[in-house]
Amino acid sequence: MPHPSRFDRLPPPARAAFLLDFDGTLVDIAPTPESVTVPPGLRDTLLALRHVCGDALAVVSGRPIDQIDHFLPDTPFAVAGEHGIAVRHRPGGAIERATLPPLPEPWIAACERIASAFPGARVERKKAGLVLHFRAVPEAGEAIRAEAERLIAEGEGSGQFHIQAAKMAWEIKPDGVSKENAVRALMQTAPFSGRLPVFVGDDVTDEDGIRGAEALGGTGFRIPADFPDPDAFRAWLQRLSRTAPGADSWQD
Ligand SMILES: O=P(O)(O)OC[C@H]1O[C@H](O[C@H]2O[C@H](CO)[C@@H](O)[C@H](O)[C@H]2O)[C@H](O)[C@@H](O)[C@@H]1O
């Protein structure tokens, strides 16, 4: 029996809203957060797709919004950053931030100590959390996780944060934050409202986004289950972006 086409799961252009993860989905994974490169043509593809679907295109990332603006300036209509803690619903609009407990100061110093015990590991600070990266020292991943779990179980902040598994990284993240909430928030305002979300991602946090899209009657795709890698996903997006605005169905 032939594999059902991915297009079977796609709402038509007039009903679809694209909510896309960044790292590992729109761009290839790189050795460090700073060293990702945006492939030539990706911005044009996203802008064309945005045009086809009436502007309903958002990036939903674990990164802060300013980093998405840096890599994809003036490209998505909306951006949700830090897994949905921060949401900007429209270009130039205000950034809405969830009110969350601050990361306890002693944890920041403790995480720096944890990272320095494993040369190659590093801490990435975020406004409401931090990430312990171990891509350069993969064999230390489990030990770093154990230390981080011990840390967040104690003192001020315990019971308010959890460890989110990421790609070669552990993120200390406030409870109650998820890409599912980000999808729900984005889909409440124009031009997303009234459309069906199509969420695409590659990581554990993206499963929340896919669940959020499905709960709203939309659909989700995951790399590598649905596309072998970001390159294959970008090629698919490029084909979709060639659909004529106003067309009833997607160009394959
Ligand atoms: O939700 P995303 O847009 O996928 O962001 C998830 C995290 O991505 C970044 O870390 C990951 O990508 C890096 C660059 O490819 C890679 O070096 C690292 O190992 C990955 O974990 C980013 O640094 C995090 O802040 C994001 O939460």
From TrEMBL:
Its cofactor is Mg(2+). It comes from the Bacteria. Keywords: Hydrolase, Magnesium, Metal-binding. It is an enzyme of class 3 (hydrolase). It catalyses: alpha,alpha-trehalose 6-phosphate + H2O = alpha,alpha-trehalose + phosphate. It holds the Pfam family Trehalose_PPase. Pathway: Glycan biosynthesis; trehalose biosynthesis. GO terms for molecular function: trehalose-phosphatase activity. Coiled coil: none annotated. Its EC number is 3.1.3.12. Belongs to the trehalose phosphatase family. Removes the phosphate from trehalose 6-phosphate to produce free trehalose. This is Trehalose 6-phosphate phosphatase. It comes from Endosaccharibacter trunci. The gene is otsB.
